[in-house]
Amino acid sequence: MISKNITINIPTNMEARPVALLVQVASQFESSIYVELQDKKVNAKSIMGMMSLSFNEGEEVTIITKGVDEEEAMDKIEAYLTTCQ
What we know:
This protein has 85 residues and is of the alpha+beta class. It has three helices and four strands. It has helices at residues 16-27, 47-53, 70-83; strands spanning 2-7, 32-37, 40-43, 60-66.
């Protein structure tokens, strides 16, 4: 299991399109991936869960990955959240 705090650097607030793209990135991996913000923890592969977080640029979230490809999953999620790639 890997846990990492990441500051969101997406130039727009987390509306439908950026969230959908994040879910697509997370869904590429076999590992479990969760995003924590304050007292909420949601599955990064769930569009409804991710929409419920409503996080914005500059906020810090905790990403948790667990599974056979957890390192690659963490790298890709971090790259998306910090550079939108």
